[in-house]
């Protein structure tokens, strides 16, 4: 099994192809298997790499370290050990939060470009931010569900991630990946990612950036994704009219073409 031990955690990864490295970072409670369509399609021209965060997918289920700063430090250590530079970082959902944390901690010297897929800089609603995903009471309910019925929490997420009904195969894939994450990890990282605010970091993203928005979104507030595109200095917004939260799964051919064009232009 391909793995790198970084910061005391054994992380599962896969890579193929050659050329510009493209590192895909998955969402909270999700996993790298969601990017299979990208691995297969992009390997002819690029070097796609997928990575499971600690506690997720096929990586080690560590008891500690389930914070965005630790996940970002794991990414930096992984890049260092794999001797990867000039990387295009693709963050989906929480993966974008990890990427912003990475940029805040380590800068952009290793990066050629950044792709943010379906994420706003802050999940929790506040008096000074109108694009939150949930208010405090809803947040408490989800945190409780993570401990009392984690499989139901997975179903809640899956129901809101697609513009239409996912195929049985895709639905099983999503549920299988979510079920791999222990409830203690679910609670820890879901809490951490929900309360962090990356609005101040957006202006520090000084590499070419592509922001991807599924226009048929029900999980997020689409204005929050547009907010990201407006505030990152060198960002373009790509809209996927027939997608919800997972354009790389819902419209893989279109997503791969858009991503390829972006990488070639960086």
TrEMBL record:
Family annotation (InterPro entries): AB_hydrolase_1 (IPR000073), AB_hydrolase_fold (IPR029058), AB_hydrolase_sf (IPR050266), Epox_hydrolase-like (IPR000639)
Keyword match Hydrolase: yes
Protein name: Alpha/beta hydrolase fold protein
Presence of keyword Cell division: no
GO annotations of cellular component type: membrane
Molecular function GO terms recorded: hydrolase activity
Residue ranges occupied by any AB hydrolase-1 domain in the UniProt entry: 21-252
Keywords, comma-separated and alphabetical: Hydrolase, Plasmid
Gene3D superfamilies given in the database record: alpha/beta hydrolase
């Amino acid at each position: 099994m391909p793995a790198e031990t970084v910061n005391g955690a054994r992380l599962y990864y896969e890579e193929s192809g050659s050329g510009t490295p493209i590192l895909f970072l998955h969402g909270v409670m999700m996993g790298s298997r969601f990017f299979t369509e990208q691995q297969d399609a992009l390997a002819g021209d690029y070097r796609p790499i997928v990575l499971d965060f600690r506690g997720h997918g096929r990586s080690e289920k560590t008891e500690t370290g389930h914070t965005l700063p630790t996940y970002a430090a794991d990414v930096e250590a992984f890049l260092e050990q794999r001797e990867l530079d000039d990387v295009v970082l693709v963050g989906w959902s929480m993966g974008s939060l990890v990427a912003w944390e990475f940029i805040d901690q380590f800068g952009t010297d290793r990066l050629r470009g950044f792709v943010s897929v379906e994420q706003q800089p802050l999940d929790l609603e506040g008096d000074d931010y109108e694009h939150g995903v949930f208010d405090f009471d809803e947040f408490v309910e989800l945190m409780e569900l993570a401990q009392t019925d984690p499989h139901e929490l997975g179903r809640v997420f899956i129901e809101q991630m697609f513009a239409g009904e996912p195929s049985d195969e895709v639905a099983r894939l999503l549920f299988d990946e979510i079920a791999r994450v222990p409830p203690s990890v679910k609670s820890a990282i879901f809490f951490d990612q929900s309360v962090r605010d990356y609005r101040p970091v957006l202006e520090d993203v000084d590499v070419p950036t592509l922001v991807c928005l599924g226009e048929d979104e029900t999980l997020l507030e689409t204005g929050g994704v547009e907010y990201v595109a407006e505030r990152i200095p060198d960002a373009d917004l790509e809209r996927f009219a027939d997608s919800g939260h997972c354009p790389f799964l819902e419209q893989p051919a279109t997503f791969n073409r858009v991503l390829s064009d972006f990488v070639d232009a960086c």
